[in-house]
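Protocol step 4 of 5: obtain the predicted structure for the target chain.
Materials: sequence only (see below). No template structures provided, no constraints applied. The aim of this step is simply to have a reference model before the mutagenesis design in step 5. Sequence pasted as it appears in the construct record:
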Amino acid sequence: MIDFMTYIIALFITIPILSFFIIFFVMLKLTQQKSKAVRRAADMTTILLLIAVATALRITFGTFILPWLIIFLILMFGTILYFQWKTQEEVLFLKAFKSFWRVSFLLFTCVYFVTVFYGILIRIIA
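Step 4 output (structure tokens):
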């Protein structure tokens, strides 16, 4: 049973878009609202995308990049807090974190696809 769960978790980390669609359809059944289902699926898939991107970059380029990703995320969160402070003169951490988390989802989705396609292309060429 533990092996089965390990394989399922590995599948969701390897193919985070699959987990996005599964979570989306479950949330759509529960909430009956597409916009809420998309937001919740994106929120839950972001951490899987972070792990998948770090793994894909490590496999493709052979370097452990997770510490640099964490530093980048901290800087991105700080930038979002700065812009929120400049535009609204009040920092709402929950609102800033939601913005940060959703921007991270979009960014890591793009980086994931680019890295996977680049890795596949390099393997085909070599």
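Step 4 remarks: Residues 2-125 form one domain. The chain has a mean pLDDT of 91.
Proceed to step 5.
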